[in-house]
Amino acid sequence: MIQLELAGENALILYLSAEISAQNLSQLQQLQHQIRSLLDKQLQELLPSYASLLIVLKPQHQGLLAIKTMLEQQLVLCAASTEQLGQLLTLPVYYHNAWDLDHVAHKAGLTTEQVIELHQAEEYRVYAIGFAPGFAYLGELDARLATARLKSPRPKVPKGAVAIADRQTAVYPAESPGGWNILGLCPTSLFEPEHAGTAKPLMPFAVGDRVRFQSISREEFLALGGQLPQELC
């Protein structure tokens, strides 16, 4: 069921069921295409999340209530397609036990090699982007690797840290505080602010895209432009 509510003077928010699922993601992608077609030049921006879609209108729209009624009447919630939507991005990872790799392995009753293998085995979907530009929430992690966030977040997580929390994984696009369990480092830059105003994308992925991880050596990591934190040098 589609639930559509007012979200300000120039915005509506659309809700699906509250679960995190590939089906919701597929349906949100289909709804985005419909909304762009229906609203055309009145639409300013669409901001998807796990099971919701914020619809931001330009100030000169025809009337929020009229648009809400029109969308409720004309939007069609299609059955989720089994087609693999979105581009596939492969991210290299230098896995290292300097942080939480051993902890995750011990908790799961696995070796570190098995943790690395399971982390690489999945094809993850980009469910949402935040809390920082380029930080993509990727799911779903193999249930055997599900690990709670750290009780005390680290004051400084290195740029490129590949981490897991619960059944999600992500790559920190910049140095920042963080409480996820770090498995390794990725040398790929995930946010390029200098691309603003150009045809080049700010990020290499969007909501709905797919991500895989591929293990690389320390030498390969450095050759790809990766920088090691002081504790690994």
UniProtKB/TrEMBL annotation:
Residues 2-201 form the Carboxyltransferase domain. InterPro entries: CT_C_D (IPR003833), Cyclophilin-like_dom_sf (IPR029000), PxpB (IPR010016). GO terms for molecular function: protein kinase inhibitor activity. The keyword Protease does not apply. The keyword ATP-binding applies. Keywords: ATP-binding, Hydrolase, Nucleotide-binding, Protein kinase inhibitor. It comes from the Bacteria. This is KipI family sensor histidine kinase inhibitor.
